């Protein structure tokens, strides 16, 4: 304890205005770094698995991230990419519209491997937290459509 007391006494015995200014500057710089730092919008590992960063970016700006299915230099996918029956697996689908979404609800879904499951969906109108309207699929406008 005596050595610790002598060390503390020696430190504060040599303390002057310059030591105070240097310590204050170090504390101010550290506090500024902590207060002004921002967390990234998404964790970098999540972004690495879902997208890749643009190779060119402006100084001081974050890169633009794009999906692996539409890399930089290739135009972005537009629309729903709806493929009609009989189309090639690799052909580019058409844009589609809301009728295509309704048609998929009526005919059934697709699992992750792309196989038809036949599970029929539901169309809901949600008005607030308690007023939920379930629509009858036989009255959907695209039922008789192609």
Q: How is this fold's topology laid out?
A:
Blueprint: H1 2-13, H2 17-36, H3 44-50, E1 51-53, E2 65-67, H4 98-107, E3 124-127, E4 131-134
Antiparallel strand pairs: 1-2, 3-4
Structure in words:
With 146 residues, the chain is α+β, with helices and mostly antiparallel strands. Among the domains are: 35 residues; 47 residues, no CATH class. It is built from four helices and four strands. Strands 1-2 form a two-stranded antiparallel sheet. Strands 3-4 form a two-stranded antiparallel ribbon. The longest helix has 20 residues. The protein starts with a helix and ends in a 12-residue tail after the last strand. The relative contact order is 0.06. The model has no long low-confidence stretch (mean pLDDT 84).
The strand order across the widest sheet is: 1-2
Distance between the terminal alpha carbons, to the nearest Å? 90 Å
Shape call: elongated
Helix content: 25-40%
- How is the biggest beta sheet arranged? 2 strands, antiparallel
Mean pLDDT: 84
The H/E string reads: HHHEEHEE
Computed structural class: alpha+beta
Q: Low-confidence stretches at least 5 residues in length (pLDDT < 50)?
A: none
Count the helices. How many?
A: 4
Strand percentage lies at 5-15%
Number of strands: 4
**What radius of gyration results from the CA coordinates?**
31 Å
Q: What keyword list fits this structure?
A:
single chain, two-stranded antiparallel sheet, alpha+beta, two-stranded antiparallel ribbon
Can I get a quick summary?
With 146 residues, the protein is of the alpha+beta class. The chain has helices at residues 2-13, 17-36, 44-50, 98-107; strands at 51-53, 65-67, 124-127, 131-134.
């Amino acid at each position: 304890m005596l050595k610790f007391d002598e060390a503390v006494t020696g430190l504060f015995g040599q303390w002057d205005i310059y030591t105070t200014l240097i310590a204050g500057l170090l504390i101010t710089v550290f506090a500024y770094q902590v207060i002004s730092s921002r967390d990234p919008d998404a964790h970098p590992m999540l972004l690495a698995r879902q997208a890749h960063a643009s190779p060119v970016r402006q100084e001081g700006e974050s890169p633009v991230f794009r999906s692996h299915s539409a890399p930089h230099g290739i135009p972005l996918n537009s629309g729903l990419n709806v493929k009609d029956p009989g189309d090639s697996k690799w052909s580019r689908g058409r844009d589609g519209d809301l009728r295509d979404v309704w048609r998929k609800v009526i005919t059934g879904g697709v699992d992750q491997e792309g196989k038809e499951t036949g599970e029929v969906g539901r169309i809901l109108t949600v008005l607030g937290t308690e007023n939920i309207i379930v629509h009858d699929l036989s009255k959907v406008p695209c039922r008789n459509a192609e």
